[in-house]
Design goal:
This protein has 166 residues and is an all-alpha fold. It has one domain: Four Helix Bundle (Hemerythrin (Met), subunit A) (Up-down Bundle), CATH 1.20.120. It has four helices and no strands. The two termini are 18 Å apart. The structure holds protoporphyrin IX containing FE. The site of protoporphyrin IX containing FE has 24 residues, from helix 1, helix 2, helix 3 and helix 4.
């Protein structure tokens, strides 16, 4: 089942708001991580703020982006695995979902609790992790606009031969 044009626009709008908002939240984490490491603001401010942004913005957006991205793909002629640019975005967001759930978020909570006492290695990790994830999300954004590499699945293998309305 595919979306009507009205629904397609609405879901795409939601998709872009959540996905690009997610990138923005990631850049806020990076800014705070750098500020905490370099003393731009006190660690007692930077790390609790990171923990807050993680809990109320970054982590919820991670799940929302995955769900809305998948709905957006299956509800349009793009499909989830038919085109390389969509499939690669799915891989990026799925890998990030696991990293955020099992590594980044526990690290943010830990940092918010320890503040000044956070070991330097963990402080550096709080700069490296959002740097890597922001880079991945910039790549996902570029893939979305340039849509490179063509089809993964040939039209005759695909369940629908509908023309993709890019
Ligand atoms: C689960 C992961 C994702 C999937 C399956 C997915 C899938 C899609 C699909 C199928 C479209 C085209 C929709 C249409 O034409 O109606 C689209 C558009 C778009 N996506 Fe994603 N997406 C994902 C994640 C992301 C992420 C992480 C970003 C950016 C951070 C992003 C940014 C965009 C943008 C900006 C567009 C609009 C492109 C245009 O209209 O030319 N997406 N996405």
């Amino acid at each position: 089942m595919k979306f009507t044009p009205k629904w397609r626009k609405a879901i795409l709008t939601l998709h872009v708001i959540t996905a690009v908002g997610w990138l923005g939240a990631d850049m806020v984490l990076l800014t705070l991580g750098v500020a905490g490491l370099t003393g731009g603001v006190g660690k007692d401010v930077a790390y609790p703020a990171m923990s807050l942004v993680g809990a109320f913005l970054f982590v919820p957006l991670t799940y929302l982006v995955w769900v809305i991205g998948v709905v957006n793909a299956v509800g349009t002629p793009w499909g989830l695995l038919r085109w390389w640019w969509v499939a690669v975005k799915l891989v990026i967001v799925t890998v990030m979902l696991f990293l955020v759930t099992f590594l980044l978020y526990p690290g943010l909570v830990h940092a918010g609790e320890l503040k000044d006492a956070l070991p330097r290695r963990d402080q550096i990790n709080l700069v490296v992790a959002p740097s890597v994830s922001s880079t991945l999300l910039v790549i996902a954004t570029v893939l979305s606009t340039y849509k490179p590499w063509g089809r993964r699945v040939k039209p005759e293998d695909s369940p629908s031969r509908a023309v993709v309305g890019a």
